[in-house]
Amino acid sequence: MSHKNSIDLQKVPQHIAIIMDGNGRWAKQQGESRIYGHYEGVNSVRDVVEGAGEVGVKYITLYAFSTENWNRPKEEVDALMELLVSTISAETPQLNKKNVRLQAIGNLDSLPPACLQELNESIDLTSKNTGLTLVLALSYSSKWELLSAVKQIAVDVKKGILSPDAISEEHIKKYLCTKQIPDPELMIRTSGEHRISNFLLWQLAYAEFYFTEKLWPDFRKEDLYEAILNYQNRERRFGKTSEQLTQTK
Ligand code: FPP
Is 47 a catalytic residue? Predict the structure, then answer.
């Protein structure tokens, strides 16, 4: 029986963030080049996005390329950028068919012009869709994001628009790439690594973490459902006690 049938559709996390890890190791196991693993990873992306939409997830954020990934061998970076362009271009009609809206976060101006253009076109073409929002984190790192938020707040203070005493969580949120997006309730990382690797540090403050040994190219919607079920069996206390939570029910 599919895990899907056991999911409580009233308690599905509205936002799931995923660190898609293990493409390189998966390819090595097959005796192939690392980029082959990234190509296979696209099949997992397609399946997981479809699966998330089927159970009513509203946002899914995929860590597709980190700021640190620019330090990989040029051949791999170039191949990843080409893969992004070809995937976004090929998948846009399907995104529209499935009512998926594409968005992106990160230092997007640092992407190659062809990649940025394809991305912006797809974001534009899918902007009216009302189902799942697929957010690609590209050239993204949380420290970069927080640093730029701090700089923008400093400018507001310098201009006299904001006083240092008045700076609140809301001001910080306003300058994050995710200002329009609710924080993820669930973060999944594949490949057995237990790190968050500079991903959504602010936004994951109260998220539940789910780690699986599966390598990303082997991860499918059924694995997503298993993670959602695991999430639904946890008690989210937000700093309160179990008793307080029962009283407010
Ligand atoms: C991490 O595995 C994966 C990446 C850095 C790239 C992920 C990109 C894709 C799956 C393509 C996505 C495309 C779209 C359109 C979203 P790794 O290379 O670090 O694996 P390793 O840890 O085994 O070396």
Answer: no
pLDDT in tens, 191-242: 999 999 999 999 999 999 999 999 999 999 999 999 999 999 997 777 888 8
- With a 6 Å cutoff on the Cβ, whether 23 touches ligand 1 is yes
- How many domains, the chain? 1
- How many C-beta atoms surround the C-beta of residue 204 within 10 A? 18
Whether residue 8 lies in the annotated active site: no
3-state SS assignment for residue 154: helix
Range of the domain at 85: 11-140+183-233
Q: Is 7 in the pocket of ligand 1 (CB under 6 A)?
A: no
Query: What is the chain's percent helix, strand, coil content, to nearest 5?
Result: 50, 15, 35
Query: Is 5 within a domain?
Result: no
Within a domain: 151: no
Predicted TM-score of the model (pTM): 0.95
Q: Phi and psi (nearest 5°) for 217?
A: -65, -15
Side-chain-side CA neighbours of residue 79 (13 Å) = 12
Domain at 38, CATH number: 3.40.1180.10
